[in-house]
Design a protein that fits this description.
There is one protein chain. It is built from one helix and eight strands. Strand 1 and strand 2 form a beta hairpin. It folds into two domains: 30 residues; 108 residues, no CATH class.
Length: 141
């Protein structure tokens, strides 16, 4: 009788721990606060076309002159449209400078550089962190 009682106790503990871990993982996956404040696409400012993320090797800011590829930052909560690679973006929908970006509370904004759908779409569908979420997330300021 003692062995049966021990076995039942260990099964109960295992089930309880499994439920606890599962609940904590689902809490990480889809929280609105996990959404980055800004998402960046790699662009050629001279042609105003989106390019492959790999062409933006660093976090250089574009200051209206020079050539190369730069990150273009778009607010994720504004419902802006992300163009497909090769498509033109609207310069009024974002900024080339990450240094002045702030979140809704006035603090340092979170930025996701790259990792957006190469076919384009609504920017509000991207997110950072958690399980099952793609992207190259990072903090910026």
């Amino acid at each position: 009788m003692t062995q049966a009682r021990r076995r039942m106790r260990s099964v109960g503990i295992s089930l309880g721990l499994t439920a606890l871990v599962a609940a904590s993982l689902t809490g990480c996956s889809s929280d609105d606060n996990d959404q980055a404040d800004y998402a960046a696409i790699c662009v050629d400012p001279e042609t105003q076309e989106r390019t492959d993320d790999d062409k933006c090797k660093d976090e250089r800011e574009y200051h209206g002159s020079g050539s190369g590829f730069f990150w273009f930052y778009m607010a994720t909560r504004g419902g802006a449209f992300v163009p497909p690679i090769g498509g033109r973006y609207n310069a009024a929908d974002g900024t080339y400078r990450a240094s002045g970006l702030r979140n809704s509370g006035g603090g340092t904004a979170t930025i996701q550089r790259g990792g957006l759908d190469t076919k384009g779409g609504n920017i509000g569908t991207i997110a950072r962190g958690g399980f099952g979420k793609a992207g190259k997330g990072s903090s910026g300021g």
